[in-house]
From TrEMBL:
Source domain of life: Bacteria
Protein name: Voltage-gated chloride channel protein
GO CC terms in record: membrane
Alphabetical list of SUPFAM superfamilies matching this protein: Clc chloride channel
């Protein structure tokens, strides 16, 4: 006997109502947590800038954060990778302690001068808070996966003010070559609503203005594609170097709290010896400056080194804003060589280095449009896709899987990740 015609529409209505409610709850939690984090981060940054000698205490701050994670945070130390692993292979609810630990660890890192970002904190808070909702009765295991993805999207969107890019990031970051479209609606609702929750709390995101965009022409497309390759290599260098230093530190230093202590000594000494104040913290003023005027060619390299040392030795935070800095300043430096407007290429580098390092080209193309306007969209797409291809299969997230290769070549630089075999053609 055929089913009644209203069955599928009623199922769709139930699905929409269910995920409007759940994604809205995720958005309120993640957006509020991100707002508190951003306000606190602003205060920590202002305090550090007003009392610069505080950077000498970075080694002790690193030891304190390392000791707290060693005693209380072993189950959540994997951070973003834990969330991605739980989406791929659910095992246990992400401990709620991840929220205060990553929040406190990131604020301490910024207060005392480590070069770290902020997206990791917002994403981890969003994911951990969303996973607590999965404890509600009558939710299926598959619902938990989608809730985690919605938490990632909500955290990303609310910390950067880019709801569409945030929604796509939660779908795209899990695996190279595959997106989970079954989570598209929840991730979109969570990202848009979380951004609005942050704005309702009074969050103000940085405004980035591009002074000039080159016209679409063969020369400009080829020049941006070449720049994109270099952006991808920079993203790959960042990811590989951070992972390599982290592995070396684990091999050299058995006691975990000593690793950020050593990293703190190196960073603090380098700040005062090299006058490297512009390379610590988020570096947003330098990013804005890169869109307005030419900068020193080596700024991107300075930020890369300071961030690799900070993250590789165990300081908490994120990789994305430092990648924005690296890309923007590298684009600023490349612009005269490629005869492109420095403001435009800085903006493209801003998103393209991140596209290559995180293997998320679609999210970063949309982010370019959200941050810089639609005029830059086509050339930003060229730069992001070229960067994505040039970075190979390395990435900043070790738990990210390779579902489809970017091109017909072995995945030799991801030995920790087994390659997913192609689907059967039978």
């Amino acid at each position: 006997m055929p089913r009644p015609r209203l069955t599928e529409p009623l199922q769709l209505l139930t699905y929409l109502l269910k995920w409007l409610l759940l994604a809205g709850l995720v958005a309120v939690l993640a957006g509020s947590a991100s707002a508190f984090f951003l306000f606190s981060l602003e205060r920590a940054t202002a305090l550090r800038e007003a009392h610069r000698p505080i950077v000498w205490l970075l080694p002790l701050a690193g030891f304190a954060v390392g000791w707290i994670y060693y005693k209380l945070g072993k189950t959540v130390e994997a951070g973003n990778n834990l969330l991605i692993d739980e989406i791929h292979d659910p095992k246990a609810t992400v401990p709620l302690r991840m929220v205060p630990l990553v929040l406190g660890g990131t604020l301490v890192s910024h207060l005392f001068g480590a070069s770290v970002g902020r997206e990791g904190t917002a994403v981890q808070m969003g994911g951990a808070l969303a996973d607590q909702i999965a404890r509600l009765p009558r939710l299926k295991p598959e619902d938990r996966r989608i809730l985690l993805m919605a938490g990632i999207s909500a955290g990303f969107a609310s910390v950067f003010g880019t709801p569409l890019a945030g929604a796509l990031f939660g779908l795209e970051v899990l695996a190279i070559g595959r997106m989970r479209y079954d989570a598209l609606f929840p991730c979109l609702i969570a990202a848009i609503a979380a951004d609005q929750v942050g704005l309702a709390w009074g969050v103000h995101h940085t405004h980035y203005a591009v002074l000039e965009v080159a016209p679409m022409a063969v020369r400009s497309v080829l020049a941006v594609a070449l720049a994109g390759v270099l952006f991808g290599l920079a993203g790959r260098l960042f990811a590989v170097s951070t992972h390599a230093l982290g592995a070396r530190m684990r091999g050299w230093v058995a006691y975990p709290p000593l690793r950020p202590l050593i990293g703190g000594v190196v960073v603090a000494a380098a700040v005062f010896a090299l006058d490297g104040w512009r390379y610590i913290g988020l570096g947003i003023p330098t990013i804005v400056e890169s869109l307005q005027q030419p900068l020193a060619w080596y700024d991107w390299l300075g930020k890369l080194l300071f961030t690799v040392v900070s993250l590789g030795t165990g300081f908490k935070g994120g990789e994305v804003t430092p990648l924005f800095y690296i890309g923007a300043t590298l684009g600023n430096a490349l612009a005269p060589l490629l005869q492109l407007p420095f403001s435009m290429l800085a903006a493209i580098g801003f998103v393209a280095v991140f596209a290559g390092a995180a293997n998320t080209p679609i999210a970063t193309i949309v982010m370019a449009v959200e941050l810089f306007g639609p005029a830059i969209g086509p050339l930003a797409a060229v730069g992001c896709i070229a960067s994505y291809l040039a970075s190979g299969h390395a990435g900043i997230y070790r738990a990210q899987r390779v579902e489809r290769r970017k091109f017909d070549a072995p995945v030799a630089d991801r030995p920790d990740q087994p390659e997913t075999p192609p689907p059967s053609t039978r």
